[in-house]
Amino acid sequence: MIKKLIVLLGILVVILVVIVGVTAFMIDPIVRKGVEYGSSTTLKVPTHLRGATVKFRGKVGLDHFEVSNPAGFTEPKAIQFEHLDLEVRPRELFKPVVHIQQLRITKPEVTLEFVGTKSNLTTLMDNLPKGEPAAEPAEKKEAKKFLINKVRIENGTVKFRSDVLPGGTKTLTLPPIELDNVGTAEGGASAGEIARILLQALGTAALNAGEGLLPKQLLDNLRGDLSKNLQAVPEEIRKKLGDIKVPEEVEPEKVEKTLKDLFEKKAR
């Protein structure tokens, strides 16, 4: 009897190991496809994620994520991230509200392209949902929300492309950016709201990097685009944009002045 019980327990252990192994093997491509589908649907442009790695100790890694340029622009990609690290328990990924301790974005490369006075960054933000109507289909009401305690964006660059630039392009370094408590006060932010925050933050950092180095016309166009798109940001999300922090070595007073100018321009 004891021998049979030992055999049965051994079989159960083997089955459990197989289930865990199959789950671990399948979850990476599921996450990769989910990120691609969700981001393409939200931004209305093709996106590509090279790979996803889910570690059951609470880490998710996304490798080489690319956002294509909207139609009408020359460059093939608008934004690419070398790596995204999320501190999140794997079981959270299947909940309606996903709690993420930290999202760290490494080496973003932003191509900020202007055709006339219109930029690709503005076009991407225009593609995002402007807010949910009062009556939504049931399936849309069940869309995932996200709570992110901290977002860090570091080692980024921006390439400005415009006919008003000598040589057509200029590449500048972006300052590191920190955003705290994204979606935590609202019970969760949608994928579109988070995308808008990230685009707005990257655009503001690009504006700061270009001050004094790029033609005033180009910077004024970018400043106007960012200011205009603030009108489409819900009040509670707009407050998060004011939480952008830049380390002291990156001259925070310049970034603070840029943000102040953006909000004052909108208020007029």
Structure, described:
This protein has 268 residues and is an alpha+beta fold. It has one domain (2-127, 144-267). The protein has helices at residues 2-43, 120-127, 138-141, 191-210, 216-230, 235-241, 252-267, and strands spanning 47-55, 59-68, 77-87, 97-115, 118-119, 145-154, 157-161, 169-173, 177-182. Strands 1, 2, 3, 4, 5, 6, 7, 8 and 9 form a nine-stranded mixed beta sheet that branches. Strand 1 (47-55) and strand 2 (59-68) form a beta hairpin. Helix 4 runs antiparallel to helix 5. Mean pLDDT is 75; it is low at 7-25, 133-141 and 245-268.
Mean pLDDT: 75
Beta strand %: 25-35%
Total individual domains: 1
Shape: globular
Question: How large, in whole angstroms, is the Cα Rg?
Answer: 21 Å
State the distance separating the first and last CA atoms.
Answer: 84 Å
Total of helices: 7
Roughly what percent helix? Answer: 40-55%
Helix-strand topology string: HEEEEEHHEEEEHHHH
Strand segment count: 9
SS-derived structural category: alpha+beta
Biggest sheet features: 9 strands, mixed
Low-confidence stretches: 7-25, 133-141, 245-268
